[in-house]
Automatic annotation (TrEMBL):
Residues 189-209 have a biased composition (Low complexity). This is Thioredoxin domain-containing protein. The lineage of its organism: Bacteria, Pseudomonadati, Rhodothermota, Rhodothermia, Rhodothermales. It comes from Rubricoccus marinus. Residues 168-216 are annotated as: Disordered. It comes from the Bacteria.
């Protein structure tokens, strides 16, 4: 479904404060869990099943680019609800079905109207996925509502293009060569072919003749 019609999409995702379901405070997009993230914005609880469909699509695409892409769901909660602290978070946590959804759910507490205006969202009764670059906050792709094949293909293309522009991961540094120049000492061989444990010890003296061997 077309999101912006004839208008241009927003260029950057606004900086917002989020709190994960374990109570850790984050700043988005700087604290997104990967260089690219499919950020799924929703305003109403009854839209959670549709948000989960987008999340599954995002996970399938992310699996092709290990470590380069993540998926987060950002339920938008009115700033006033922040006053209720953990109670608001507990309410959202109670709607989470599994560990994966728990990890990717990052409620954000903002004034809804300015937030919607920044992202050019005309209504709250829909789900809005955005492909966001963590380093710059740039919005590289945007969708809306139910998933259709055109959006699947355009999202896959946007992810591939974005990953091709990401800087390569640095290679691990090679260990420096050893500076020890002391020559190794090989054991000396005795005439019998065995190593002489005494090293340079002098040869043993021949045994003295016994008295029985001396002629009178």
């Amino acid at each position: 479904m077309a999101l912006f019609g004839s208008s241009s999409p927003p260029e950057t995702f606004p900086e917002v404060r989020a709190t994960d379901l374990d109570g850790k405070e984050l700043t988005l997009p700087a604290d997104l869990p990967a260089p690219l993230a499919l950020v799924i914005v929703l305003f109403q609880d009854d839209l959670d099943p549709l948000a989960d469909q987008w999340a599954r699509l995002g996970d399938e695409i992310a699996a092709q680019h290990a470590g380069q892409m993540a998926v987060v769901e950002t339920p938008v909660v009115g700033r006033g609800m922040k006053l209720f602290g953990s109670l608001a978070t507990m309410g959202i946590r109670g709607q989470v079905d599994d560990d994966a959804e728990h990890a990717r759910t990052l409620p954000i507490y903002v004034d809804k109207k300015p937030f919607r205006k920044t992202l050019k969202l005309s209504k709250e009764a829909d789900v809005y996925p955005f492909l966001v670059e963590r380093a710059t906050g740039a919005i590289l792709w945007a969708g809306e509502g139910a998933i259709d094949m055109h959006e699947v293909q355009s999202l896959e293309a946007a992810v591939s293009a974005a990953i091709s522009r990401l800087p390569a991961s640095p290679l691990p540094e090679a260990e420096p060569p050893s500076t020890d120049t002391t020559p190794s000492m090989a054991p000396r061989d005795t005439p019998g072919g065995l190593a002489d444990p005494a090293g340079d010890a002098p040869d043993a003296a021949p045994p003295e003749a016994s008295g029985d061997d001396v002629k009178g």
